[in-house]
Design a protein that fits this description.
Layout (H helix, E strand, L loop, with lengths): L1 E5 L2 E3 L15 E7 L6 E10 L9 E4 L6 E6 L5 E8 L2 E9 L11 E3 L5 E8 L7 E9 L6 E10 L5 E5 L5 E6 L2 E6 L10 E5 L4 E4 L2 E4 L5 E3 L5 E3 L6 E7 L11 E12 L36 E3 L6 E5 L8 E6 L5 E7 L5 E5 L6 E9 L2 E10 L1
Antiparallel strand pairs: 1-2, 1-3, 3-4, 5-6, 6-7, 7-8, 9-10, 10-11, 11-12, 13-14, 14-15, 15-16, 17-18, 19-20, 20-21, 21-22, 23-24, 24-27, 25-26, 25-28, 28-29
């Protein structure tokens, strides 16, 4: 197994262990081959981004192909997001996307929903409750293309304090911790902002250090493999963690357990664990990892799909007559199948009529008996 170190922070993408933290200027990485425990540095300080980045919000989710990873980092003082693609070939800067409104960076965290379809970033700026504010930006995320879309902004003026953001295991609810309160948002609601419910208020419990009692309010959050969300404490090294016991449940039935876990030592941070259990997005054109053993002969030669862009027709030319039935599918940018046609055994070409589809960018997949032959992008104009 290979281990990736991003500016000194330990990142492990190929197993059940590891975490991802940080926010750096600039961003680089090193690769270490564990070599059965002996260890060997293969490449050191490979530059990815030479820019000023946001603080502490380096976040990852698995690519729709089930193998690679998307890593997202916000740019300092701009509404831009760097998208890094981590594959067996290494980490490359895939895209810089400007979206949403400008958000002044501050303390907080960022997270992906477990299904990879939502991305959220919590920012607190200021010094006191009367001069500070909180902004939570969240977006839909396309695991296939790496694009953010449909920006939504939560703004709390003159009541901001440090906090964090996390998602329920079923990816339906987003939780926002804001110092004295924890809010729940229903991402399936017609109006997500209006769906906000207060599921916990700080109960006043104090953590005694020496002779002084310190409040243990709500801070950063982390969804764990046991499907519970854990929260640490802002401002002090505390022995306590809060727990959201049933985060898939609506409202107070999610059962927030305050100061529920007492640690043997004091703690001030939480690591960030990507969802290692997330696999390929089935029936997506980006579910494209094909075994060389299973690849059909037809995939080893060029299949022509044209014209592209197109207005209403698409031609497919095979270099040989098909030895088996093939299925052509088109997907929209949400991964929903919008067109499907069978191409019979013995055919060497096929014309598809797409008059019913609106203009836009679509993704296609050509497969036979569950084996992918070809995939890509089609533009209808």
């Amino acid at each position: 197994n290979q281990y990736y170190f991003f500016n000194g922070e330990f990142v492990f993408f190929d197993g059940p262990d590891g975490f991802l933290t940080g926010g750096y200027s600039p961003l680089s990485y090193s690769i270490v081959d564990m070599n059965s425990g002996d260890g060997q540095v293969l490449n050191k300080e490979i530059p990815i981004i030479t820019d000023t980045l946001d603080m502490g919000k380096l976040t990852a989710t698995r690519h729709a192909n089930g193998r690679d990873w998307w890593i997202i980092m916000g740019k300092h003082l701009e509404n831009k997001y760097y998208k890094i693609l981590l594959s067996p070939d290494g980490a490359i800067l895939n895209d810089i996307q400007a979206i949403g409104e400008y958000t002044y960076p501050g303390l907080g965290e960022a997270a992906f929903s477990p299904d990879g379809n939502w991305y959220a970033r919590y920012n607190w700026s200021g010094n006191t409750a009367t001069t500070s504010h909180v902004i939570v930006d969240f977006f839909r995320f396309d695991r296939c293309t790496g694009l953010l879309s449909d920006p939504i902004k939560i703004f709390y003026e003159d009541e901001g304090r440090p906090g964090g953001v996390s998602f329920s295991p079923n990816s339906r609810f987003m939780y926002v911790s804001a110092w004295n309160e924890i809010f729940q948002f229903d991402l399936e609601a017609d109006d997500i902002l209006e769906s906000r419910l207060t599921v916990a208020e700080y109960d006043g419990f104090l953590d005694t250090i020496g002779t002084v009692g310190f409040p243990i309010r709500f801070y950063n959050m982390q969804l764990a493999p046991n499907n519970k969300i854990y929260l640490n404490v802002s401002g002090i090294n505390s022995k306590y963690l809060h727990v959201i016991d049933n985060p898939d449940s609506s409202g107070i039935s999610c059962n927030v357990l305050q100061h529920h876990i007492k640690l043997p030592v004091r703690n001030t941070t939480l690591p960030y664990f990507p969802n290692y259990r997330l696999g390929a997005l089935e029936d997506s054109p980006c579910d494209s990892i094909v075994s060389s053993i299973d690849s059909p002969k037809e995939e080893q030669v060029a299949i022509k799909i044209y014209p592209n862009p197109t207005e209403n027709i698409l031609n497919i030319d095979f270099p040989l007559s098909l030895s088996k039935e093939v299925i052509f599918k088109l997907f929209d940018n949400l991964g929903q199948a919008v067109f499907e046609q069978e191409i019979n055994q013995g055919e060497k070409s096929q014309t598809l009529y797409l008059d019913m589809l609106p203009k836009g960018i679509y993704y296609y997949k050509l497969e036979s008996e569950g084996i992918k032959w070809k995939s890509g992008k089609v533009v209808i104009q």
